[in-house]
Amino acid sequence: MTAWLRAPASPRGQARELHLHRHGAGAETRHRAEHPLSNRTAVVRVDGVIRGSGALSHLAGHDITVQLGDRERVRPGQAATFYTEGWLFGESVAVRSLGHADVTHAAAAPMASAADPVQAKADRDLRAHVADADLIVRGRVASVALPALPAKRARGAGAAPPISEHAALWREAVIDVDQVAKGKRPSKRVTVRFPSSSDVRWAEVPKLHPGQEGFFLLHGAGEGAGYTLLHAQDVQPPGADRVIGAPGPRPARGRRQKKTGLNQHDRPSCRGPSWIATWS
Amino acid sequence: MIPKSLSGEEHQDSEPTIAVNPANPRQIAASAFTPDPAEGPRAPIYVSIDGGNTWTLNSIVPSTVADGSATADITVAFGTTSNTLYAGIIRYPFPGDRTRLNILRTKNFQASALMTVLVDRIGRGVDQPYVQAATVTSGPAKGKDRIYVGDNDFNGTGGKTATIDQSLDAARTKPTFSSVRIESRTTSGQDGPSVRPAIHPDGTVYATFHAWRTFNDTTGAGTADIVVVRADAGGAGPAPFTSLVDPGDGKAGMRVVKAAKFNFNGFLGLQRTGGDVSIAVDPRNSDVVYIAYNDDQGALYVLHVLRSTDRGQTWSPELRHVNNALNPALAINSAGKVGLLYQQLTGSGAAQQWVTRFETTTTGTAWAPLTLAQTPASTPPKQFDPYLGDYDHLMAVGRDFYGIFSASNTPHKANFPHGVVYQRNANFNTNTLLNVDNVTPVHASIDPFFFKVTG
Question: Which member of A273, B32, B306, B394 has the lowest number of beta carbons within 10 Å of its beta carbon?
């Protein structure tokens, strides 16, 4: 998530007292029942969400509980950008901080008016996904058929796949390539496998059909073993040139001031973790 | 069970299970195909610390962002007195069709710490892990947690894939596990995905599974024996789960039903079928065991319940027969009352409904029904398979039954004849779900529903 918090960031060991001070006993009781407060939690107010899932995008103006990392320190009144993962979702929300960076009020204000946080997260996730792809082509699906190659040649699949409700039910599509956006492809055609299964494992992976146009983000299965579609984002519309053409830059963060509490282990990854900017 | 802060969610939260902590029944964990709302690298479990009155999602299960912050299967169970929660999951990512088994543990299911991975196995793939747990109450092993994970392990050789992954001391720092192959006969090449254990406090452990005998790759049609195995020493010793021998062929595992028809490509409404099984043992007497299973009878998908009173050696005639019903879940309370949860497709056309019923019996023949939900069969539309889940879950602690099922969440009082309480925002006058602002309408979806019935 990416969010803005306005409330005082409670320092270690003082979360409970600060919470009482701000909200009174009633709110304190509700929070404590749901999200166990400790010397590693702070209660903060979200001023805005920078990037985040739809479930978190509404948090602006709300108090949430933040579990601090082992070496994180915050003080009342501190303005900070928090990088977080989801933790507890009940009547209210608690997140785990992966680290935070101080920001000034002036710096935070423009961030609060930034683009849709859900779209911002989707864009960032797509950029990361572009970086992960082995081959990206723009083209048109010429045909779809049962695989001509042994199933084991699909990425990671073993010989004679067992019968399971999670079976991918691979299909093979031939794509006429108009443009190679990433990677090298000597041929004007590329063959790609995709799961036709509607099982929970595979349902969100795009199902190709003849005539379909777009960008195809392909994952290699090893030397000479072809390509697969594996993720929901593996097909993008033809107009996605801008995103597809600029793969992989990790978003800058914490530019203003020092970072606190980040270490190699819990440093936010490129995808998934949420950001929360806090200030008061 | 969807909490208020997630009132805007529209995900298909199907295939639920539940785990009540016997040492403190106010603590309840549950699972479903619910992704992490923050779309992070973990999947959530449902947590209640007030006996199921309120629920919170706690994201403590390993997953990945790229694969949707969820699991491909998940079940949960508490040790009897250890306050330890175990989970069996199919963990993301996994390569191709080769599903990845993880067995997990946490000693504090409210904490934020990631669950500890006890087993992480892929090989040719492991399917549908179904965990049960108990703490040994007497003898030299007193205080140890024993867990049994029924799964379909494609690493089993010779097509004998029905497996119990067991640990006889699962709470220790680094527990050891063994994969017990419980299929003793020739299969069609593998067994079915449903392998269900049931534990008695005296150390007896039963399991039932869908033992595939024939299978047509093209049509998905096949036949299966419904087999019950038993371990009299809790799975200890050199040949666990061989205590029950079928006199018909002298092999371990009683073939309670032979050549039950199934179709792995079949559907009942929007829910896929293919072979449901459930088992429960009477906590007062480990000789008494009930099973439920499904088979195809013409166009009908039929649920059956049978009973043995001699440790699985002989079985009763059919005690319960329900047409077009699936997801049977059995439990027996401390008074010997049997509970049966199932979901039945009724009606036709636009009036078709999924009816979720909980029935009880003390005789095995007279069943008292309780309709928990009767919801539209095709609303909401399916997002993926399974629509409701390949299973739901029922368990008993003392005299109380605790259950969980998934169903359409349209807020309509008529859909829940015995009442319902939503945590998420909803207007029962306009039959509309509402977002976190309590104003914006939200589409109907499949949600997990918790219930408790005092026996």
Answer: B306
* Interface predicted TM-score (ipTM) over 0.90: yes
Which contiguous run of DSSP H or E holds residue A126?
helix A117-132
Task: Tell how far CA B96 is from the center of its chain.
Answer: 25
Residues 38-97 in B contacting A (C-alpha not used; CB under 8 Å) = 38-42, 44, 54-59, 65-70, 72-73, 90, 94-97
Residues of A whose CB is below 8 A from B97 = 151, 157-158, 161-162, 164, 166-168
In angstroms, rounded to a whole number, what is the distance separating the alpha carbons of residues B86 and B89?
Answer: 10
Closest chain B residue to the Cα of A41, Cα to Cα: B112
Give the distance from residue B376's alpha carbon to the nearest chain A alpha carbon, in angstroms.
Answer: 21
Question: Which residue matches tokens 């299965």?
Answer: A221
Please name which of B320, B281, B280, B279 lies closest in space to residue B303, comparing C-alpha atoms.
B320
In the predicted model, residues of chain B with pLDDT beneath 70 are: none
Identify all chain A residues contacting B94, using CB atoms and an 8 Å cutoff: 156
Q: Which residues of A touch B437 (CB under 8 A)?
A: 58
Q: Tokens 């601090």, residue?
A: A68
Q: In whole angstroms, give the CA distance from residue B352 to residue B408.
A: 13
Among A28-42, A104-118, A213-227, B297-311, whose mean pLDDT is lowest? A28-42
Nearest neighbour of A55 by CB, restricted to B38, B65, B112 = B38
Pairwise CA distance, residues A276 & A101, whole Å = 10
In this structure, are residues B328 and B294 in contact, taking their beta carbons and an 8 Å threshold?
Answer: yes
Does B99 contact A129 at a Cβ distance shorter than 8 Å?
no
Read off the tokens for A230.
């594996």
Residue type, B384: F
- Mean pLDDT of all residues in A107-136: 78
Residues of chain B with C-beta less than 8 angstroms from the C-beta of A227: none
Residue-level pLDDT at B352 = 97
Tell me the chain A residues in contact with residue B189 when contact means C-beta distances shorter than 8 Å: 163
B157–chain A Cβ distance below 8 A for any pair: no
Query: Phi and psi for A159 in degrees, rounded to 5?
Result: -65, 145
A204-220 b/e (C-beta count within 10 Å ≥ 16 → b): ebbbbeeebebbbbbbe
Considering only A57-61, A174-178, B107-111, B238-242, which range has the smallest mean pLDDT? A57-61
Query: Is 0.95 surpassed by the pTM of this model?
Result: no
User: For position A121, what pLDDT does the model report?
Assistant: 85
Question: Closest chain A residue to B72 measured between Cα atoms?
Answer: A201
Nearest residue, CB atoms, A203 vs list B189, B264, B383: B383
Residues in chain B: 455
Distance CA(B431)–CA(B410), nearest Å, equals 6
CA distance B441 to B426: 9
The answer for residues whose C-beta is within 8 angstroms of residue A21's C-beta and 6 or more apart is none
Instruction: Assign A37 a pLDDT band (cuts: 50, 70, 90).
Output: low
Q: The sheet that has B145-153: what strands, in order across it?
A: B126-135, B145-153, B162-167, B178-181
Inter-chain contacts counted by CB atoms under 8 A, chains A and B: 169
In this predicted structure, what is the pLDDT of residue A248? Answer: 37
